[in-house]
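Much of our argument rests on the idea that a fold can be written as discrete symbols. In the encoding step, the backbone of a single protein was reduced to a row of integers, each denoting a local shape. This step matters because it turns folding into a mapping between discrete strings. For completeness, the protein is quoted in full, as a sequence line and a line of structure tokens:
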Amino acid sequence: MSRFSYGAKLKGTSSEVIDADYLAAQRQFKVNRHAEVVTGRKPGPDLDPSSSAFDWATKKHMGLLEVVPPIRPAFFTVEGHMSDMFVGPCAFVASTLEKEGRVVWRPTGYDNTSLPFNNPSGRAALVERLDSKVFDDGLAFPVGTPWDIAGFSQGAMVVCEVMEKDVLPITGRLHYRLKDFRKGIAFGNPNRLINQCAPWVPDPPKSDTQGIMDWHFDFTKYPELAGKWQEHARTGDWYAENKLDEAGANMTAIAKIITTNSWIGGPASIVARIMDLFTDPFDGLIDIVWAIVRTFMGIAHLEAHGTYDLDPVLDWFRTG
């Protein structure tokens, strides 16, 4: 206060002394600062010029309150089969936003090399991270911290399963985190819901196509996810663009064997597809063999997803 002309009498006095000179200086400080706030020369809160109370607003304008840095959202990422958890579309988006000071990136490692897919290891790892209150590096993740999530390919399957089983249900282990969820995106998602694709993708999957697996993440049925979830896929994606016809069913049957070692269950099982040979032996055999070739090719080559323009994705998260 002594730095102001009206506080000249306070120079050399203890900061703990509150006498008539101090109260007069504080009152004048509030009068002056009130005038600056109401004329737009200083930001609020406004001060009551008729009061000499040493209240919160006065302390804030005097710079006496502890500055609490804003909580940056946590951004969890899960990359795909045979991927490095630090490399991929999810990693690029999250690391870019972290460099901009917008988020704290939390890549999630799991067994993404096994065939059949070891998705349970991914689910366990992601749930453990989301349920943590303090991360391994000592950074706190208290309840109330906003969070984003992204998954690619097999990682998208992991993310969708965690959302469906652990976050969204009232009985889910992570349901308490749902209120703090900001945004999520799935790249090249084998569980992509039919006809769902982010509006910025220039070459989206063809209409009436869906992910190659026989379960699809229906985020549209959850009001809590309205405007908060996107599917990012391109036409020609082996995993995310599967037709609703005979050939598509065959692709799903083979994908289930390769990724989950599932041979039975529903019309998309390989048993159901082979039974189809009895009604159409020649065409059915060709369809199944072709599905085997295509599906193995897709799983063996990550480029089967195509490349992504990630600038619109970054813009979407920046507006969060």
Q: What stands out?
A: Residues 266-279, 281-286, 295-303 have pLDDT under 50 and may be disordered. The longest helix spans residues 281-300. The two ends are 40 Å apart (CA to CA).
